[in-house]
Predict the 3D structure of the following.
Amino acid sequence: SPTQKTLDRFFQSS
Amino acid sequence: MFELTMAKGSILQGVLEAILDLVNVANVDCSSKGFSLQALDTEHVVFLSLFFPSEVFRSYRCDEDCSMGIAIADMVDLLRASNDGDIITIKVTDQNFEDITITFESPDKTKTTDMDLQLVDARSHRLKISEWHDMESEYQAIFCMPSAQFMLNCKSLSVIDDDVVIRVNEEVISFSTKGKSGCVNISHVPNKTDNPEKASVTLTHMRGPVSLTLNLRYMKSCAKVSTLFDQVKIGLSTKLPLMVECKIAEKGYIRYFVAPKITE
């Protein structure tokens, strides 16, 4: 089944 | 100095109540243009960004841009103690940048309640995201639907499983799920116009078919906030998180960015 991804791969934390 | 006033039960209070199941602490930026808030859920799956323009408040004053961390759950608890008809003031003075003062004033002005809420560190809740105008063109598909319909879809699907697959192509927008006890597929035939009607599902932007799998727990949270508004706008891309947006007045918005589930 699919795995939950996090936003870290899309957005850079400042 | 920063100071805003609003009536009890205003849209900001409703939104803060509705985001509680995802966020505890938020970063708030205030400028002369309005009040913006960013928050990230503890699992880093959902990023919430909202902007309330100054004109949606009863009064609004911000002499200098300021940024502060607010424990949203504590703030909502304090706001719940207000009475019907109260005018709520939220204030931060330059002399004291350690707490925020919340005041309730009764309609007949005979009772005033002042409360101080300590500010917290919320720097980790800031994320660098592009301006929406740059991002919108990067979504493969964007559609609008009545927010009540969005909530109904999420609720119907969560009876069967924890995940939803949203598929969009020129002909159909579908929400589907498959679980041990069966499957559900909800299909909408979209209108295609730049000027969506409130009661219909409208495909406003289409660069090619796209589908994403999302956890319904997060989608239901987005739907909860969206039901404070008539319409919700949803953007899908395989390269960006799912975007769920509601408009607040002319220039304001509340946007959720939700990381999808992906099969490795």
Notes: Chain B is about 15% helix and 45% strand. The CA atoms of residues 131 and 184 of chain B lie 36 Å apart. Chain B touches chain A through 24 residues (CB under 8 Å). The radius of gyration of chain B is 20 Å.
